Every structure is written in C-alpha cells, then in structure tokens.
C-alpha cells in the first residue's frame, strides 16, 4: 500500500510539500499541487482519515445537498440525517441546489476546499461525469436519487414498485381513466424513470392505454397540484383518478377540488407519494406510498461514516422497503 514517502518520490517533491497538499495548505503552487495529486492518483494513495482527524485535519462535517428544504419530505430527511450524524459526533452542513446546476457544483466544491469530509446528495442536477470528478476529493453518496453508476453507494427504494402498487390500487378500485403527475419528464432517468416504468406496467397489465393529455410533467408543489386540477376541469374527457409523484402535488389537487365543489374520491380519486405529514392533515386523508425517511437518513450516515473510516470499503447499493398506505382519498 502506498504511503506519503511514495507520493513524494513519484512527484519529485518533499514529504512536507505532499503533506501540505493533502491538508489543503494555502501556500503551495498550483503546479506542485497538480504534481502531488497526479502522483496520489497514479499510486492510488488515499490519506488515512482517522490519522487526519486526530491531527484536526478532518472537519467531522458532512454536507447534504437537497433541492429545497421547504419540501416536507426533504425537511424530514434532513432531520433524520442530522440526528443520526449528531449521535456519531458529526455535524451537518445543508446546501439547497434549487435544482440549479451551478449551485450544486458550488456545494460540491466544499469537498475540494476540505470544508466538508463527504457529501450526501438527495438529488442530482448535473450529469454524472461532472459529479464523479469530485470523488477524488472525498466520498460522495446518493440518497433518494438514482444514477446508473458503480463508484458511489446509493440508498434506494423500489420506485417502480411504489408506482406500480399505487396505480394498481386505483385500477382495483375500478378506475380506467387514470392521470399521472411526475416531477420530471415522462422519459427521464433515475427514480423518475423507475416510477414511470412502474406506472406504465400497471396500466399495461390491465389493458389500459395511457392518455398523453393526462400526463402532467415537472410537478412539485401544492400550487402545481392546484394548477393540474384546473387543467383537468377544462377537459371534455376527464380522468376519474390521478397518481401523483408527491403528497404536496396531491394535496394541491385535493384542496383545489374541494374549492371547485368536487368530492374526493367520488369525482376524482387521488393518490400521493412519500407519506408526508400533510397526508394525515388533508380532508379527506390522503392515500399515498410511504417511504421510510427515518431509515433513509440513518442508513445514509452509517454508510458515509464507513466510507470515511474505510476508503477501501465495497461500493454497493442499499435497498429499503416501500408500501402503500390506504386512506380516504381513494
């Protein structure tokens, strides 16, 4: 296994200079820094995190990127991550990307500047090749977002199953005219693609054709849900049920439907996703797909700390359970 002396020999620099680069010392030229980093990469040398922590060179801070913390799902997830981190002696630094690529990169740069030891990404905005380039500066893992790659662990839920059992629940209730809301595009990658596949599978098995007019893309908020309901009311041929990608969107639909004098579920059955607190507060209460948010947060911290303590750990995915919660909205 390579050590700091090997890095110094290959780079042609002193061990002092190598140490300064490893510890992000400001008084090192870009040329020398590049020489050291190149040598470290060639040798596969990774500084020992336990030793660096004893010398005060790790921050014991874990960064977490969320799209927006006002979303109750991400607020709940952050709370779970922070509690689990605190129990292990770590603090959490939260960054909101607002689904903006530049903001996401700015937060990833905290790995470069050693302001965080590792980063948990609950969503990704940039292409994976952009994100992957930051792994040389510290561990990155995905939680609640899915990318086809094998170098960063992922905390995953069976999103296809969630959408499948949700759509199938509506079919079992006798619905054939089913609308669908998604947070992205209907053919996107990652968890959105999995949900889309699960929804399509359920309808296909029931012999139901998807009506493109009943597919609503890029829906995220309560206001989005209200707008979806208004669009449905303008249709001559309306769906009798709708499956949404979040409880917030579903909540907006339920609220707007009541304002327009519709009865849920008689006029329109509604199902959400996440099982956020709003699901129990709505009238009628919302049928939804429950994601184990507390378990997601706990597992994320467990895996991240293992990555920090053991850089040679096996990279794998962790699958968590998902279930249908039936309430009055269907």
Could you explain the architecture of this structure?
It comes from Halalkalibacter alkaliphilus. This is LacI family transcriptional regulator. It holds the Pfam family LacI. By secondary structure, this protein is of the alpha/beta class. It is 44% helix and 14% strand. A six-stranded parallel beta sheet has the order 2-1-3-4-5-11, sandwiched between helices. Helix 5 links the parallel strand 1 and strand 2. Helix 1 crosses helix 3 and helix 8 runs parallel beside helix 9. The protein is elongated, with a radius of gyration of 23 Å. The model has no long low-confidence stretch (mean pLDDT 90).
Q: Which helices and strands appear, and what pairs or packs with what?
A:
Elements: H1 4-11, H2 15-22, H3 30-43, H4 49-54, E1 61-66, H5 72-87, E2 91-96, H6 101-112, E3 118-121, H7 128-132, E4 140-143, E5 154-157, H8 159-172, E6 178-181, H9 190-205, E7 215-216, H10 222-233, E8 241-243, H11 247-259, E9 269-271, H12 278-281, E10 288-290, H13 293-309, E11 317-320, E12 323-325
Quickly list its features.
330 residues; alpha/beta; 44% helix; 14% strand
Helix content: 40-55%
Order of helices and strands: HHHHEHEHEHEEHEHEHEHEHEHEE
Rg calculated over all Cα atoms:
23 Å
Number of helices: 13
Structural class: alpha/beta
Task: Please give the order of strands in the largest beta sheet.
Answer: 2-1-3-4-5-11
DSSP, total strands: 12
Organism: Halalkalibacter alkaliphilus
InterPro entries: HTH_LacI, LacI/GalR-like_sensor, Lambda_DNA-bd_dom_sf, Peripla_BP_I
GO molecular function: DNA-binding transcription factor activity; transcription cis-regulatory region binding
Protein name: LacI family transcriptional regulator
